[in-house]
């Protein structure tokens, strides 16, 4: 009989599934100010087994794909993918993300095992250009014209509901801009 391997996805277990939400709000930079984009989206988190690094570190792997559509014209205006990783031994969460602008990053943090008053899991990670552990890689053009300097992402998930807020700090159009996104989603 084939033995099915049990994978400990830790706090990421709650994420696995297909999520939809239509209360999204994006605040994005414009040369002469700010753009506010109400949006809806689908985020698919797929259990992807585990990997072993250097025969020592075992990471549980969840792949995700996030497709975000502007309410005003029903066009996809943000398409993101990557992995969430859980290191059960060190209790570290990692979030690697790629966006099709020539920007990718690896955010991470020690998982604090925090829950809110309704017993929802709280997941928080961050990255910044001067963080040795959790960093950002971007193209020469983006470094010169639309540089991502820091990123924070907080998810609250449980009982088939999820909300997230993320902040991407940008140096763009000669100023510092706080590019933010938030939404509430339900599991299908
Ligand atoms: C739900 C998530 C997100 C949405 C809906 C979104 C949407 C937008 C929009 C509308 C712009 C303005 C420029 C344009 O119209 O194309 C923008 C700019 C930008 N975003 Fe995002 N974004 C999201 C997440 C992120 C993340 C996670 C990063 C990087 C970590 C990022 C990096 C950037 C950068 C570098 C720019 C500047 C490029 C420019 O404005 O020319 N965004 N984003």
Structure description:
This protein has a single domain, classed as Calycin beta-barrel core domain (Lipocalin). Strand 9 and strand 10 form a beta hairpin. The protein contains one helix and eleven strands. The chain has 188 residues and is mainly beta. The structure holds protoporphyrin IX containing FE. Protoporphyrin IX containing FE binds next to strand 1, strand 2, strand 4, strand 6 and strand 9. The site of protoporphyrin IX containing FE has 22 residues, from strand 1, strand 2, strand 4, strand 6 and strand 9.
Mean pLDDT: 96
Supply the CATH superfamily name: Calycin beta-barrel core domain
CATH class reads Mainly Beta
Q: Could you give the order of strands across the largest sheet?
A: 7-9-10-11-1-2-3-4-5-6-8
In percent, how much strand structure appears in the residues? over 45%
CA(first)-CA(last) distance: 33 Å
Shape: globular
What level of helicity do the residues show? under 10%
Helix/strand layout:
Blueprint: E1 17-30, E2 33-53, E3 57-70, E4 76-87, E5 92-99, E6 103-110, E7 121-128, E8 136-138, H1 140-145, E9 146-158, E10 161-172, E11 175-187
Antiparallel strand pairs: 1-2, 1-11, 2-3, 3-4, 4-5, 5-6, 6-8, 7-9, 9-10, 10-11
The chain binds protoporphyrin IX containing FE.
Protoporphyrin IX containing FE binds next to strand 1, strand 2, strand 4, strand 6 and strand 9.
Please summarize what this structure is.
This protein is mainly β and 188 residues long.
Descriptors for this entry?
single chain, 188 residues, mainly beta, Lipocalin, 11-stranded antiparallel β-sheet, 1 helix, 11 strands, globular, binds protoporphyrin IX containing FE
């Amino acid at each position: 009989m084939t033995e099915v391997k049990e994978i400990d996805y830790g706090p990421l277990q709650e994420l696995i599934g297909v999520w939809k939400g239509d209360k999204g709000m994006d605040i994005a930079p414009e040369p002469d100010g700010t753009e506010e984009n109400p949006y809806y989206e689908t985020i698919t988190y797929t259990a992807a087994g585990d990997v072993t690094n250097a025969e020592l570190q075992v990471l549980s792997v969840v792949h995700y794909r996030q497709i975000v559509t502007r309410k005003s014209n029903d066009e996809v205006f943000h398409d993101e993918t990557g992995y969430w990783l859980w290191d059960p031994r060190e209790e570290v969460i990692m979030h690697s993300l790629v966006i099709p602008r020539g920007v990718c990053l690896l955010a991470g943090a020690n998982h604090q095992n925090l829950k809110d008053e309704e017993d929802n899991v709280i997941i928080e990670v961050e990255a910044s250009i001067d963080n040795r552990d959790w960093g950002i890689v971007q193209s020469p053009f983006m470094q010169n014209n639309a540089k991502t300097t820091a990123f924070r992402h907080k998810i609250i998930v449980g009982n088939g509901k999820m909300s997230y807020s993320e902040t991407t700090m940008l140096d763009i159009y000669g100023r510092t801009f706080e590019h933010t996104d938030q939404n509430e989603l339900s599991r299908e």
